[in-house]
Amino acid sequence: MTGLKYISWFNVLSLCLFAGVAYAGGDTHVVDVRGRTFRCGNYYRIVSLAPNITEILFFVKAQGLLKGVTRFCNYPEEAKKIEKVGGISDVDVEKIISLEPDLIIATKDGNPRRVVDFLEAASIPSFVINPRNIEEIIDSMEKIACLTGGSIDVFGKIESIRGEFMLRRRRESGGGPRVLFLVSRSPMIAAGKDTFINEMILFSGGINVVEDFDISYPRLGVEIILSLSPDIIFAVTSMGGEVGDGQLKRIRDIAGRGRIQIIAVDPDIYTRPGPRLFQGMREIEEILDRTR
């Protein structure tokens, strides 16, 4: 029995250390992107200010601590039933204060800094994340799991994702189908370098045709896209189903049907830096495998 207890605590410590979680003096804590330190397992009333944060909180089984979410937090289905605190940029701070949270979790790029500053002035701590690539997404998941007192099972799930990610990165070949991923169809804006979508394409065995562009999200015209000769165009659509509109239809008509596959994808899965990205990566890989 003693041995089992030792193994259990050893595993917890190992997971925390592997998660980048500081462990000192008996206290476990994590640091947000601003360098501020928060004690883990010390929060019981949390408000999420972004859909990806809400999805992470459900993934780490901390949904019972959620007292408020944005009106864009639509996954999983249970998130729709949680009290709404406005949008991402138009946060209702009075509503948040009325919910008496002991922690806000916000995003650096999505939520206005003045909102976070105001809430902290009202004595509500704010943990801020800013994941810009897949490693940082996993890191954010680990930190939120630690903040919410995540179990060994939760850290194990995150470790499984990390293992899958590391395996994909090692087998990256760079010689697969040529891919263009449009995060916007009108105007047509692609995911380029320094984006987690670029990593999803590379680690699924594809070549991102705009990876060498100078900016992360280049705006493209029909002629440029045709000159890039993609084999597959992924295009986000909020309606689902086939993408057959405007400029994309023109691209397909000019290139000739069958030469370029145009595939509609759910933006909620592919553009939110949270746990469903890994589902998106598996779907991309399956599509690329069918194209080889």
Brief characterization of the structure:
The chain is an alpha/beta fold and 292 residues long. Helices cover 41% and strands 17% of the residues.
SSE arrangement:
Layout: H1 2-18, E1 22-24, E2 27-31, E3 37-39, E4 46-48, H2 51-59, E5 66-68, H3 93-98, E6 103-107, H4 113-121, E7 126-129, H5 134-147, H6 152-170, E8 178-185, E9 188-190, H7 196-203, E10 207-208, H8 222-228, E11 232-236, H9 246-255, E12 261-265, H10 267-270, H11 276-291
Parallel strand pairs: 4-5, 4-6, 6-7, 8-10, 8-11, 11-12
Antiparallel strand pairs: 1-2, 2-3, 8-9
What does this 3D model show about the protein?
It is built from 11 helices and 12 strands. Helix 1 packs across helix 6 (152-170) and helix 5 (134-147) packs antiparallel against helix 6. The longest helix is centred in the middle third of the chain and has 19 residues, at 152-170. The chain has helices at 2-18, 51-59, 93-98, 113-121, 134-147, 152-170, 196-203, 222-228, 246-255, 267-270, 276-291; strands at residues 22-24, 27-31, 37-39, 46-48, 66-68, 103-107, 126-129, 178-185, 188-190, 207-208, 232-236, 261-265. With 292 residues, it is an alpha/beta fold. The model is unreliable at 1-27 (pLDDT under 50). Strand 8 and strand 9 form a beta hairpin.
